Amino acid sequence: MEQSISVDAAEPPTDHRSRAQGGARIALVLALSALGLWVLHPFLPALAWAVILAIALWPLYAKAERRWPPGGHNILLPSLFTLAVALVFLAPLVVLGVQAAREAHDAMAWVKSVEQSGIPAPEFLSHLPYGAARAGAWWNENLSHPSAGSEILHKLDNSTTIGLTKSLGAQVVRRVVLFGFTLLTLFFLFRDGRAVIRQSLTASGRLFGPRGERVARQMVASVHGTVDGLVLVGLGEGVILGIVYYFAGVPHPVLLGALTAVAAMIPFGAPLVFGIAALILLAGGAVIPAAVVVAAGFVVTFVADHFVRPVLIGGTTRLPFLWVLLGILGGVETFGLLGLFLGPAVMAALVLLWREFTDGDVSQDASRGPRGP
């Protein structure tokens, strides 16, 4: 009897033991999570892009899945959608590569002419309203003779060119590998999407309660709104300005229109491209078409950035345009192109939590009734 009492007294209480086990479990989960992030950190951008693409395309995929129910292995439909995404990204690159190969001959001929006779003065210098004679004289004195062209070309020595080529090649290989992992992850997200959604909602409910599910749905809605407001509007700007380039006589209007569409996905990025198009026209002496391109570009971007995008993004997430803009710019500054979608999603979640916090305080204060002075 005394021995059993002494044994029981030596054992720690049950609540202390469960508390220690709970702390150990939390420490183990945090350690394993940190280790997993450290192992996966080279591929985190690929995983994030795959999640964003899956969220953006899931409504379309769900419609296709209802139209053509998957079989037992569920491979065909995810493969087709993944292949379509790959073609959307790869087709413009192939067109750009073919166009660059066609222009390589002209570029080499231009380099040879620059080395032999210098850089001739562009025609628009003679059309300048002020200082045309002085600008033309400076150009002829510094750039139009053969020695100037040779000096410019000799500054690009072989060591610098080789170093830039190696760096560019390494970056291209890294991007190709990340793109391959993005497509692979996207395939599995399409195939197992419903299970992933169910598990994510269960996990958020257990960890954060109903508020976690609301935050998750708000972030998903933000991704949809950002895709509509950035990608679709950017494509629209590229199409409209591509037509303007064509009628204004800009060389390669399709290529410049595609570049405008990509740049327009970033706020205030499109003026860089249509500004280059205007400079190309100015170099050829087409002053009025250049002015038309600049005016049309500013009108299109002003309407898109101040009227269309706030409605598409803010209407979906109930997010003020200021926070949409700050989320996009801050996200791009922090995460690169990935921040175009992560920034507004984070802002949408924070604004939702703030609204729930302040609305809860207001309702709680109202339920208490009036207070005395």
Automatic annotation (TrEMBL):
InterPro entries xref list: AI-2E-like
Record localization: Membrane
Topology class, membrane: Multi-pass membrane protein
GO CC terms of this entry: membrane
Predominant location category: membrane
Residues annotated as transmembrane: 22-40, 46-63, 75-98, 172-190, 227-248, 254-274, 279-301, 321-354
Domain of life: Bacteria
UniProt keyword terms in alphabetical order: Membrane, Transmembrane, Transmembrane helix
PANTHER family, alphabetized: BLR8064 PROTEIN, TRANSMEMBRANE PROTEIN
Family per record: Belongs to the autoinducer-2 exporter (AI-2E) (TC 2.A.86) family.
UniProt-recorded name of the protein: Transport protein YdiK
